[in-house]
Please model this.
Amino acid sequence: MRITGVSDVQDALRRLDEVPDRTRARVLTRAAQRLLDAAVGLAPTDQDPDSDERPDYVKLRESAKILRRKNGRAVRFATRHAAAQHERMEWQHEDGQPKFLEQPLRAMRATLMQDLANDAEAEVARVAARARKRSGSGSGRGRDSRGRFTGASE
Amino acid sequence: MTLTDFTSDLRTFLAAQSVGTAGTDLFRGMIPANVINAVLLVDTGGDRSDSTHGSVIRTVQVTCRHVVLATAIAKANAVYGLLNEPSAPRTMGASRVTYSKAIQPPFTLGQDERQAWRVVANYEFLLAL
Model:
């Protein structure tokens, strides 16, 4: 499925809405994971973290997490210095950069709808193939835990 | 595509709206070391251009910095009111701004190394090519 214009995007959204909830959740979680992985790779490493004696101190890269939301997923860096590291454009970093979350999100946005639609279609096909396999490919036969055929045979 | 010096155009627009005075308390790129209270505009890139529809998205970070938090917040809110979803397209210098929107409302980064408060918001601008 190829998305080219506004009507295609709307159609993709409708089709995503028609996908079963669990499938949609898996697709959204995978997309969020791709974003998180990219953002962690760009996030600056903490300089001299051992000097911070606060009991709740968490390193920036280690603070990244995916949160479930009612209408999707959120990627969050849950540490108190995350916002400053993200927004202070003049800070120099030995490793990493500011806008470590916004930049990969913008890069993903261009193809996000296409990727979600492709992933959803693939996921639906996978689930259907698994279901067919479990039911013995429609012959009324299945396999037990040892791989032996069960059920009616011809 | 014709590239415009958009942050310069934005600075001129904000100066005309009494947000600040260019070179005194309204800057692009960085705030000079001898200035504390200022508004800073930083170009943060944007998105791919859309040559089919003749437009490009630019993003700009606006930092309102002041030793008094309430003043920094008030300035940031004033800028937000000017740039977030205006009712009509407008021209800023050589730039034709079809649409502009805040990516988030202004938020506080806390005090910096000179004990000045920084209140930040990022904006997206749809520019006609």
Observations:
- Helices of chain B lie at 6-16, 69-83.
- The first strand of chain B starts at residue 26 and ends at 28.
